[in-house]
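To whoever picks this up:

The nightly regression suite flagged Vitellogenin as changed. Nothing in the input moved, so I suspect the structure step. Input below, exactly as stored in the fixture:
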Amino acid sequence: MRLLAFCTLLLLEWSSGLQVGVEYQYRYNGQVENSVSPNHDQLAVIAIRSDITLQLTQEGVAIFKLSNVETGNFHGNTTTCDHHHVNSSYIGYEPLHADTLSHPFTLYFNQSQTLHLDTPEEPEWVTNIRRAVVSVFNIPMLRGQHTFTPNFYSVEETMAGFCGTWNTIIKLPEYQASIEKQQQEARIEEDVQQSGTAATSSGSYTAKTAGRKQTSSKTSGRGRKTSKTTGGRLTQAGPQIKPDYWILNRHVEFEKCHGGFFSKINIGKNTDVTVKQNSGGRYTLRGDVDAWRLEEAAVEGSVTLSNGDTDDEYIASFTIQTVQLVAVRLIQTELTVTYPPHRHYSLNYKPQNRPFSNLVESLGLSLEEAVTGVPMTQQYLIDSQALIIENIEAILTSVYRGLANNIPVSDYFTSSVERLSYFTKAELDTLYSKLPRGNPEEINLTETVMSLMVVSAGTDSGVEFALEKIRQGSFPRHAQNWMFNQLYHTLKNPNLLPRLIELALNLPWEGTEDAQQSKTVALLSTTKLANKLCFSSERRHTTYSGNCDTEHTCQPEYIISTVIPTLTHTLQNTEYPEWKRLVSLQGLCNLGTPSIIPVIKDVALGLNQPTRFMRLVAVSCLQFSEEMYLPWTARYPVTSDILMPLLMNIGELPEIRSVAFLSMITWIPTQQWWNNMALSTWHEPSKQVANFISSVITSFATSSLPLSDLASNAKVLAKPATISPTRSTGVFLHELLHNCKTREFSRIAWLSATKEVFPPVVVFQLITSGFFGVTEYTDTVIYQQGFLKDIAKKLRTFKPSGTSDEVLLVLDMFVELKEDLGMLPTEPVIDHQAWFRFNLRFLMQSVIAMLDREREGNAIVNYICDQDSSIVLPTDIGLPLVIKFTRDRVNQVYTPQTPYDTPGLGQEMLLRVHWSSSQHFTMKTLVPWNHGSVVESGLRSTDSFSLDFLIRLARTRTGGKITVKPFSHDTINVIQLCNVPYTSIGPLYMDTLTTDHHPIYQLHINEEGEVLPSTTGISLHYSWSADIPLSFSSIKNWVLTMNRPAYKNYRFTVTLAPQLSITKEVVIHFMHSMVQQSQRIVETEPEDFGQVSQGASDYNYMSQVSQSASASDFEEFDQEFGQEIGVGNEAEGSDQFAFARLQEQTLVDDGGRVITIGASVEFMSETPGSKYETVLTWSGRTDRVVSRILLGFTSHPPVNQLQDPTATCFDLTIHRPQFPPRRLDVVTSDLHKTFNLQVQRGTSCNSDPPVMRVQIDMEASQHSLNHVVHQLQEKDCNSDIDQKLRPMRVYISPVYDHINLHATWTQGFPDTLLNLTQHVDDHLRAWLDPIITYDHTVTNPGYHLLINATKNVEVDDWTVRSQLPQAVSLVEHLHLPSVISHLITAPAPLTKTFFFNYINDRTKSMCVVGESKVQTYDGKVYNFSPSECWSTLSIDYANKHEDTDVSKVELSIQVRFTDQWEVRLMYPWTGSIVEFNRAHVKLNEEELTEPQPDRVQYYTDGGSMFVFATGTVVVEVADQVSLWMSEVHYNSVRGLCGNYDNEADNDLTGPKGCLYTDPELFASAWTTTGRGCNRFNLNREKRKVTAYQESCPNQFYHPTGVTQPNVTENCIDWEYKEVTQGQLQCRSLVQIPTCKPGCTPAFIRDAMVEYDCPSLTEGDHQEIQCTTIPYHTTFPAKCINVH
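Regenerated output under the current build:
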């Protein structure tokens, strides 16, 4: 065996591949096929084929010659495939006229690798074709490197670089080898290597031509067979080769390729696309260790682009290369090279122009020209110039006169941006000079549109053009702010960054509001861009083309030496307003470089007296992220020197500690650290910090994020959180969770946490700028801005319940109370969420202000390119593949002038609105021959929405009126949705609009119809053309196209044709009224708004007494806005909603407060047309036990039609338990709830019996009540709160476990409602299909439905039995979502259940005031002696009102003790002062005999008085006073009950912010006079308070940097480490810490650090090529001062 092994080694040493002196002739075919999944039936194909002559003239030297070169293409559908590729018979080939390609070329190689390639001086694309051909033959066997292990791994040189390759070689068994031999010999025309005899051939070798004689009557061409002769002579014998056949399979690992060409432009690591590349080959070899030859080979590759969630939907580019041996001869005439050789040292693909990044980014070449070398013609540039001007004119036309041909405006922008990316600076100047000129407004808009286009192209020439115009002062002001945001997505050259930063730094802070906005946006955008291009360790995933020389990459030294000092100076300048310093601080944070750590450290530790907001932002900056924040090398300096000292310092602000904990977890600490922090929640003195830590651990533990496992293990050790995180810390938590989940690293929490200090216009600009282009997640924006809380507060009480006089009086008393207490004046809280105010006046003013601020003249045009990303990579056949994805959108608003008043009509304005967006995912194979072409496949979707109306607004006494009419008679596509998967073959230079796209699927389904009934008289037509039916799933696809293109072909339009519409204008009336029980309705004459009222008296089931609205919610609006919006005809305001008044009167007769809202739509032509009206009226009796809701729909025919109106009325009565509960023992209460619904239909709602009756009964069993109470006991930790609030908590819990429904209906039940119920039933059946069963053997009474539902409270699922007319169904184990379960199956009203569970928070904090002690909300207990003077328990300390716009939750609560406890609650928003004791309740000095639901609710129980006020406060008066506060008041109150911030230690805070240690003095500070109060004693105590306040301590918490000076040392500098490896001079990608002089390392770390290693490539065209290499690096992780 040893001898055999030795002999084998000798054979391996002596063996060779292809034989010297032998000529091999092959046929070669290469194809690229582009298609779209899933079936790939439609293909766009480009192909090249030729004959290959291969001679080995000596060892390691091979000469190739390509002859009979032909190219062709195919575009269409085919199902006849060869190995899943298009058969050659489909492709029409033509000779390729490229003389250089037919020149012979030489390959030099050895056993291990190819050495170099000698070719003529030729275009690079020709050399790439040669490389692709040679790559097929570049296998170890043919180079003479042999191995007989079945599987082996090798690193091979491919078109994509040096790639790891897996090889499997198997020798065919004798039988299979014989079959293979027969197949090969049948194809080979001549073979001198046959054993014994040689093959015969009709073509003999000619020494002079080194080609084939054609003895057949047919020429030998590709795809045509050459006839063989049966006789022939024996050719000269050559080296013999054994008839052993081998199969070699190879697979390339592209993820392990390096050194090749791969260019990325604006590609984020987390871009929402997936690109996969594969390549593999199957080779048939003949021979053994003595000699090898290649019989045939098939190399297949693919590149797929996926933007979806499924693996079967993608865009693909497939390649196939085949070579087949056709002849083997001895060399009779050597191929000779007669040209000066041009040497190439690599088989890797090379672009035409190198360095590629330099030419694309700096010289302004288009990507197509830089890659292929095929230049644009001058005519193309001229045509492009004309097209861009035409597009700009079309955009202006769409603004001033409406859409041209209904083409979405985004198409014009996209097409122009693509063309402008080819323009040089001089060509842009020429184009600018040719822009159409009109009036000044049109000129301004024209320049704005071009500026948007130029900047969106992101080229050097475009940025240079913009910068020059800015310097000249001619760049539109609207476009300048937009430019900085846009370049974050589109800038292609990092070298332009210094110029942008210089511009941003030189913009002035001072000046107009526009200047402040511009400076803010410029600083924040450019610093984020600097992080993306210069500092992020993942910048190679953003823009990278393998080049890293200093001339073409970002140099961070400029940023470090210029930007950081400038921003630091602003940050540390206390003369600047806080918001400007915050912007500079956030700008530093955006950089994400460790060089900012010393500055951020000082702010975070509280040195030099930074504000609380500044410290919060600074601590949040100290996070780790590969994409955005600080790099991993800063771990120890940040965590050990800053974050952990802040976190562990119990004397630090709880908010600072909480955010420090949040930043700490981003550095991925150990499991032990997580466990320790979880355990610390049990003994943490700060409840706020403990709750926050527990909330963070729980949030991550219940998610599927990278930190989930660590958090899950620690969750069981943490104390459960009792309250949600505070607003200032919660936004940071939400942002971190959002970033971890979406990998879309937004930074908006800093603005949300600090927006109070910003000017409103700056905040508005930052918000409308899309938060600097880094997020599009609406949920995050809504959360971060606190919109939900704002809405909740505003919905809590829509209108002040008291009169205006009451509100003003109570407000004056509230302000007087604050003055008596000496409370510090505070700045008003700015309401930045103004668009959520339910105030029409403010809304109109805001819109007008926005138009005046943002528009250029009378128009707003905004073009936003969210993504413009490209990848360029080589295919196996040597052609470049460009993967491109773009996403953009356009917003247009046009108003000819500021909305103006029309006497008698109100306010009038023309409003033309257009919005459109497009997304484009494409793969383009660039073909350089024959003047260039493109083979493309892709997805394109376009959505647009357009309005073009004249709008009038008018006020009426009961509401308002809006009149809408088309501005022109032109047809307009109101909605357009289009999605096309396509393939195409076209010229090399083309754009979106001029490309001939061939859709993958035919639009074989066409549906159309009218959107509105014919009675409306409006021609609103819809059209659906698609390969899928119009259905719910197709509608779902529309939604998908809003985010990304879909793999379906459809087009949906909704078209308005005014010229075909009978209706010329639409009048919309709306009303709102509120009537109390005591109010009677005054008769007035009915009004008809120009239409004869029909059938109003037919509604005689109600009182026929008409009414006028009183106490309208628009009362103040009317007074304030009447002059602004104009007052409509007074005759119009009286009785437009006669039906509404009838409904309202019915409920007023029932008693209680009645609210009515209504809307009507009237379609007007020359005479009044059809009118549709809907009115909703609801009421609740004072005890809130019975509520009634009336909903009516009426349809009035046109005046000229003698038809009766049609009415459908719904009458719902709800009987529910009392809420709040009047018994503490709710377990024995009757919680029965009943719903009774009656539906009437006809010309009058009482002329016929009801067409439907429905009764729903809901019951709570004793078992369910006990179960809920038990669950509440387990959740509650405070027994006092548990005892007092448990009744209310039971009422808002899902206690009902039995529901019965009985419905009956008649044949008169409306068909529309019947169809709707059947449609809903179909969907319910589909949803319940897995758990529903049917019994069709029974027949039940017709027109009856019985449903019985029972809940299993232990497992929280339902069993539902339904008795239908034709069947009985049974649903088992139905689990309802928790939100639905809480809202539906709780005894309390739905609104109360929602607010208590999801807004106010079920957990309330309690303050207890006794005759000797006070226990605050946060648990602090101190001595207290009450008196006849009023002691303030809680009062809102922020001045949240401007004039009469009072905060809806602002209040004060005071107590005093005479012979019993008395409480006074002041609530300015409702104009209420509630005074009560254990027996009596007064409202504004008047004794109450029953509760008033809208102002105060109360009940007595067991000698205690319970008062519920404002929906957020509960007070119990008994032997002591107990006060519960909702989370709405969290950290916004002060008083004897503390600050309600989860921090007990600071509860003794006085009105002026003083911290007290003497409880008696503290109580005196919060005491005011009152009837029976001893003023002499009070004044004496107040003097002590005043004296103490002069020099009192007012800061309970102290910055860590002040109390712990040892943590303020700064011993670390940051540098880019350089190493030398051979001839490579490498530089670290991230900054490495190093100790300053005088400091010594305290901890050394060893780690692998990635370095950029530039090197010069070999060959005539040398370039600096960059390779990223990891090196083992030692650096100090922590340094200490040795002195």
